[in-house]
Amino acid sequence: MRPSLVIVGAGPRGTGLIERIAANAPDLYAGSGLDIHLVDPHQPGAGRIWRAAQSPLLWMNSHAEDVTMFTDETVAMEGPVREGPTLHEWAGIDGRTFADRQLQGAYLRWVHEQAVAALPPDVTVHHHPRRAVRVSGSREGRQQVWLEGRPRPLLADLVVLALGHLDAELDDHQEELAAYAKTHGLVHLPPDFTADSDLSALRAGEPVLVRGFGLAFVDLMVLLTEGRGGRYEGDTYVPSGQEPVLYVGSRRGVPYHSKIGYDWSGERPPLPRFFGPPEVDALLARPEGFDFRRDVWPLVEKELGFAHYHRLFTVHPERTGVDWSTFEEKYAAASDAAEREALVASAVPDPADRLDLDALDRPLDGVRYGSFEEFQEGLHGYVEQDLSRSHDPDYSPDLAVFLGLLSVYGQLVRLGGIGPWWHGFFSYLASGPPGPRLRQMLALSRAGVLKFLGADMTVGAEGGVFRASSATVPDSFVEARALVEARLPEPTVGRARDTLLRELHADGAAETPDGLLRVDPADGRLLDRAGRPHPRRFALGPYTDGRTPGAFTRPRTGGPAFRQNDATARAALVFLRAVVSDAAS
Fold first, then answer.
1. How far apart are alpha carbons 163 and 20 in whole angstroms?
2. Same domain membership, residue 84 and residue 28
3. 166-207 per-position pLDDT tens digit
4. At 417, is the pLDDT very low, low, confident or very high (cuts 50, 70, 90)?
5. Exposed, middle or buried: residue 347 (CB in 10 Å: 0-12, 13-18, 19+)?
6. CA distance 486 to 450
7. Does one domain contain both 398 and 318?
8. Strands 187-189 and 482-485
9. Residue 567, domain member (yes or no)
10. Share of the chain above pLDDT 90, in %
């Protein structure tokens, strides 16, 4: 019987795994035959998120030149590099374009076809357009992968879960709001992928409370404005009359930072410097474990500061008070944040040139406005300043911090179980919307279609309506008959709607305190509650504690997901080679 590998999930992560199998097979698995079964109800390559059947108004939030599915020499992996075109090279479009998601889906489908074509001739790929609902089988024997609507399972020597983003059951607070909405005839849209949401219940002219100011909100904003016939004439929005009035707030009360609008030039900061493999090794070696805030975050702060000041001192020395070598020596020797802050205060005269991560994370902390109208103008100024800075190379230390964030994320992946705060912080600073989307936000606000609520937004249900308030405008509130939770579902094991994941958990797969599936950071094997890796089951993706910034990345930034894909592919091929050898002996 030919060896069999089942990959559950045929989106970008599953495609990346096949690409790595194709790259490593000549060295690790030549001439042995293999059946690869892809299980996914959606088309391979694009998967659910990047499927063709979605609005062409929805964009990627990365420049086309910053999107690749191919490895390069910056990826720290054992397997061979197989280079290929970025999205903009493949599509023949301007590299600074923010492509729509349909085009990205076409690119991903092409990458999938290329990866399959690169497999050895005795490896066959079978696509099963169904959902996997359960995996059974002992640790020592073949696994059974049960598919929805199919009486007999697929038999697998190995199973890799590449499930991607998952739906989730409502938490207790959401359950209460949903029940209240049902009782009082209100509209409550829980966390979801905006392209999948039914927005028809949000009626023209009526107020809608929106909790969440990230990328899910941007999609919602687009679908309820241009998606309903509105249009932009320069910086002016011309309503169609079909739009609701959106009142948006969040924990921070501000939108994610704009994508940087200029190119890098000159020397890159030499990263990692203060948070690299030796520091991660030391943390992992601690018998008592480590705490993120106490043990990891100080290293992250120092690393990001180093990236920022390296760029400031080497490119804008006129804005500094000492030479770089002197500053670098003292910065390296500084033992804590207070010592670094004193050094920076003495060497960088303008506070606008100093890196303040706390202020970046919570820009409205302690800020109060006397009226709702006053806050609208205040947030206009904040967004305009963000747009100006993000498109001005005089502030290129911001781009250096972005590179530092990518470097840090690559190291944090090895630690596992870092928790959702870091992912949210990273997304807020490094994975925000295109600049044009923020300009549209301002135009919608001036047109009266979009209004800002502020930070530390709270939502209650009373008097037959939803009521929202924020700390930014004390003693002010907004009532509405509709509430949208504009954020993605949290991919926790306990609340995932994915039957397969919940069955695995019931079968002994371990989870982190934050509800993520625990995997071996070396190769992605599932860990049980005793910490033992499962010899025949792997998992990759955002529902694991090995989560990365995404299944694809910008070129020449190390690509943590690519490194993981390579490690999993190599481990799988070595295991399958042993299966073939055992069968022959």
1. 17
2. yes
3. 888 999 999 999 999 999 999 999 999 999 999 999 999 999
4. low
5. buried
6. 14
7. yes
8. parallel
9. yes
10. 90
- Is pLDDT above 90 for 490? no
Structure token pair of residue 140 = 């020592």
For 352-372, the pLDDT digits (tens) are 999 999 999 999 999 999 999
For residue 360, give both structure tokens: 């970046």
Name, in order, each residue with C-beta under 8 angstroms of 373's C-beta and a sequence gap of 6 or more.
none
DSSP label at 399?
H
The count of other CB atoms within 10 Å of the CB of residue 342 is 12
pLDDT of residue 321: 96
Cβ neighbours around 341 below 10 Å, total: 14
Q: Which domain holds residue 539?
A: 4-168+491-584
pTM of the model: 0.94
Strand order in the sheet with 143-147: 132-136, 143-147, 154-156
Domain count, the chain: 3
Average pLDDT over the chain, rounded to whole?
Answer: 95
User: In which residue are the tokens 């939108």 written?
Assistant: 255
Written as one letter, the residue type at 343 is L
Residues 21 and 141 both lie in one domain: yes
- Statement to judge: residues 469 and 508 lie in one domain: no
Distance, in Å, from the CA atom of 9 to the CA atom of 165, rounded to the nearest integer, reads 10
Residue 307 counted as domain residue: yes
Query: pLDDT, tens digit, for every residue of 103-120?
Result: 999 999 999 999 999 999
Looking up residue 235, the CATH number of its domain turns out to be: 3.50.50
Amino acid identity of residue 445, one-letter, is S
Is residue 435 assigned to a domain?
no
Number of other CB atoms surrounding residue 96 within 10 Å: 14
Q: What residue type is assigned to position 492 of the chain? A: T
391 plus 540 within the same structural domain = no
